[in-house]
Amino acid sequence: MSNMNWVRGFNATVGRLAPDWAASRMQRVFLSPNEMPPREWELPLLADAERITLRFGLSALRWGQGPAVLLLHGWEGRPTQFAHLVRALVRAGYGVVALDGPAHGRSPGYEANVVLFARALLEAASELPPLRAVIGHSMGGAAALLATQLGLRTEALVTIAAPARILGALRRFAHFVGLPRQARARFVSRIEQTAGMPVALVDVAHYRLDMPGLVVHAQDDGMVPAAEAQSIHAVWPGSQLLNLASGGHSKPLADPRVVEAVLELLDSVAEPRLDRLESVALAS
Asked: How many CB atoms lie within 10 A of CB 107?
């Protein structure tokens, strides 16, 4: 029997007899990320980065100079997963800051969730110049969407392989680890208590998204269903949807089509600003 089959069998039995205990155990598993070291192809970008520590202890990597672009990875991710995108942004004249999310990399903490990730974005933005764009992958994308509802200001927003609502992710995890119905409900309740926010509110259906954006997803993503991108795009009037036939959950970060679409979006939000500056200059 594989380890995962053993876990599911254990949770199925204990979850019926002691649902609170099983829910608490899976809560700790769900909120406690493992550290994933950078791949070899990420190391050159890491060597080129400037390591910075923000006021409340968050760690980040910085490259280049120019209009600020803030990046946030997903669960058990890292800043250097954005290597191809970072290189392109720096060449295009942007200053890029990529966070280590809470409890990831060198940032403090032992547990992480989407609300903590969203607050990390707010903390970082408070110490950076006005943001040209925020780009988030997976849970980082969900956190970026949530952060805009909590006060984050950015001229453009990009989500890559992001879920539209967190309740779906919680249910998928609970099903994956074999929690029975009563334990699943208590698991979700415990996550809500830890995050300090009802999971029903962490859902793009309730958001007001008024900035230009780009929603990227691969059809063969095995972690976050591609239908999530359709849900995000449907309620975001200023968004463009980029569907990729393949790439899974992480490969879209290095896809040339994604890099090109991101740069085009950032160019499009820069052009109105230039037009306004020209109008002011002519008027004066």
From this structure: 20
Q: Is the Cβ–Cβ distance between 133 and 154 less than 8 Å?
A: yes
CA distance 104 to 35: 7
Q: What is the 3-class SS of 192-236, one letter each residue?
A: HHHHCCCHHHCEHHHCCCCCCEEEEEECCCCCCCCHHHHHHHHCC
Closest Cα partner for 218 from 265, 267, 263, 161? 161
Take residue 116 and report the two structure tokens written for it. Answer: 């903590």
pTM of the model: 0.92
Sign of CA dihedral 276, 281, 282, 283: positive
DSSP β-bridge partners for residue 131: 68, 154
Contact 149, 202 (CB under 8 A): no
Tens place of pLDDT per residue across the chain (284 aa): 467 788 788 778 777 888 899 899 999 999 999 999 999 999 999 999 999 999 889 999 999 999 999 999 999 999 999 999 999 999 999 999 999 999 999 999 999 999 999 999 999 999 999 999 999 999 999 999 999 999 999 999 999 999 999 998 899 889 999 989 899 999 999 999 999 999 989 999 999 999 999 999 999 999 999 999 999 999 999 999 999 999 999 999 999 999 999 999 999 998 766 555 454 444 55
Query: How far apart, in whole angstroms, are the C-alpha atoms of residue 215 and residue 244?
Result: 11
Domains in the chain with CATH codes? 1-31+168-201 (no CATH), 38-165+203-283 (3.40.50.1820)
